[in-house]
Design a protein that fits this description.
Pathway: Amino-acid biosynthesis; L-leucine biosynthesis; L-leucine from 3-methyl-2-oxobutanoate: step 2/4. Belongs to the aconitase/IPM isomerase family. LeuC type 1 subfamily. It comes from Candidimonas nitroreducens. Catalyzes the isomerization between 2-isopropylmalate and 3-isopropylmalate, via the formation of 2-isopropylmaleate. The chain has 469 residues and is an alpha/beta fold. It has 3 domains: 178 residues, Aconitase, domain 3 (2-Layer Sandwich); 89 residues, Aconitase, Domain 2 (3-Layer(aba) Sandwich); 181 residues, Aconitase, domain 3 (2-Layer Sandwich). Helices cover 35% and strands 17% of the residues. The protein is globular. Bound molecules: 3-isopropylmalic acid and iron/sulfur cluster. The site of iron/sulfur cluster has 13 residues, from helix 12.
């Protein structure tokens, strides 16, 4: 057998049969669904008189449209949204699929719920009609988003006709500098390689910086790899992965030992070749923040918005000009000091317990700046309860943050958490496209620590200055 990359091993072990030189029929271990991208697939199945082949390998969560007011029971007042949730409940009920429904204590964002309940383990293939399914590469599983017709195919056959990706390795070495986290790391990588830089590739992250990240920090990184166009993101499982999985998956001891033998082989062979390789030095990383409407339009917080002539091409300069018109910033202006109206802490990128702990550590004993509305939306019911049990929630509430119920919320503003036209938001999410957080909304992507700093000072602020005080 020629040397193979981790990606190739995962694909090979799940190939039912090759379709042609570029496509294989891929076996799917787990398929996740939300209320937003699954209804058409169920409707199409029903029309064809087909059923769900393996209900026990499906999992569904109400995540995108759910309101985040902390009240019980939670009521979805918006008619079409309520209908989506009801549809999902009916479809899952009929097919016998486990659903974390609106008022389930474990409800949350699919990509937060699945790993924390042990559904995600190294070596698996996990699909979902949602682009941020790349998150699961953090635990050594091949995860990626699929379209609605593919959802239907997976429900009916537990397989997918899959076009193979090219392979890329991004190695990062060295310690993450003071004040930075894996969110800064990924924004920095995207700003280097571009929002299309990994398009068509399955990316494997490697190097000592990655090895030093916690499992949750790795999820942040793999989650956002899709914002560089990656078709998948992978990190070879190691001690950190196994400890996380052991704590969350609760496998019986015999199964655990067998699994560990298999998982140890889940790494790229030394002689294997990648189609593309990058090597970066972590000491170049700083707290990062976006200034535009694409995740690669990002700079270190102590830098200025780039001047027109700083862009690499005319196209990039044009897109920067349009982006700045939208975000209401000027070339050459320092990004720090830009006032914000809103702060959003949450999403499948940064809505986990470690993120909230970090925010609390900065907010402790301080107050949200007057005139700023700052929301914390935990990624799941479990994250919310844990934050309450640890006193993290208390610190946030005392500092003046709104303590909300879990969901996607202001990450994509499909519920009633929406920015007003022109409002500017410091956000721990993953997309800053025009209108992403509401019509005319202006989004600045950043780490939880940086978002905390923005909430406490009322403007984009270098968190290193706050942390030193
Ligand atoms: C709604 C869904 C299709 C979408 C995605 O695929 O990512 C959403 O989760 C997002 O983050 O934009
Ligand atoms: S939190 Fe945001 S990125 Fe994640 S699944 Fe929900 S909408 Fe998509």
């Amino acid at each position: 057998m020629p040397p193979r990359t981790l990606y190739q091993k995962l694909v090979d072990s799940h190939t039912v049969q090759p379709v042609d030189t570029e496509n294989v029929l891929l076996y799917v271990d787990l398929h996740l669904m939300n209320e937003y991208t699954s209804p058409q697939a169920f409707a199409a199945l029903e029309e064809k008189g087909r059923t769900v082949l393996r209900p026990s390998q499906q999992l569904a969560v109400v995540s995108h449209i759910i309101p985040t007011r902390a009240e019980t029971p939670r009521v979805i007042e918006d008619g079409p949204s309520r209908k989506q949730a009801e549809n999902l409940a009916r479809n899952c009920g009929q097919a016998g699929i486990r659903l974390y429904d609106t008022n389930d204590p474990e409800q949350g964002i699919e990509h937060v719920v699945a790993p924390e309940h042990g559904y995600v383990r190294p070596g698996m293939v996990i699909l979902c009609g949602d682009s941020h399914t790349t998150t699961y590469g953090a635990l050594g599983a091949l995860g990626f988003g699929i379209g609605t017709s593919e959802v239907e195919h997976v429900l009916a056959t537990q397989t997918l006709v899959y076009r193979l990706a090219k392979t890329m390795r991004i190695a990062v070495d060295g310690a993450l500098p003071f004040g930075t986290s894996s969110k800064d790391l990924v924004l920095w990588i995207i700003s280097r390689i571009g929002a299309q830089g990994a398009r068509g590739y399955a990316v494997e992250f490697a190097g000592s910086t990655i090895a030093a990240l916690s499992a949750e920090a790795r999820m942040t990184l793999c989650n956002m790899a899709v914002e560089a166009g990656a078709r998948a993101a992978l990190i070879a499982p190691d001690r950190v992965t196994f400890d996380y999985v052991r704590a969350h998956a609760r496998l019986p001891p015999a199964a655990w030992n067998a699994a560990m033998d298999d998982w140890a082989a889940l790494r790229t062979d030394p002689q294997a070749r990648f189609d593309c390789e990058y090597c970066f030095d972590a000491s170049d990383i700083a707290p990062f923040v976006t200034w535009g409407t694409s995740p690669d339009q990002a700079i270190a917080v102590d830098q200025r918005v780039p001047l027109a002539q700083a862009h690499s091409s005319r196209e990039a300069a044009d897109s920067a000009r349009r982006a700045l018109e939208y975000t209401g910033l000027a070339p050459g202006q320092p990004i720090a000091g830009t006032p914000v109206d809103r702060v959003f802490i949450g999403s499948c990128t940064n809505g986990r317990i470690e993120d909230l702990r970090l925010v609390a550590s900065i907010a402790r004993g301080r107050r949200v700046a007057p005139g700023v509305r700052a929301m914390v939306v935990p990624g799941s019911g479990a994250v919310r309860r844990q934050a309450e049990a640890e006193g993290v929630a208390r610190v946030l509430i005392d500092a003046g943050f709104e303590w909300r119920a879990p969901g996607c919320s202001l990450c994509l503003a499909m519920n009633d958490d929406v920015l007003q036209d022109g409002e500017r938001c410091a956000s721990t999410t993953n997309r800053n496209f025009e209108g992403r957080q509401g019509r005319g909304s202006r989004t600045h992507l950043m780490s939880p620590a940086m978002a905390a700093a923005a909430a406490l000072t009322g403007c984009i602020t270098d968190v290193r200055k706050l942390e030193k005080q």
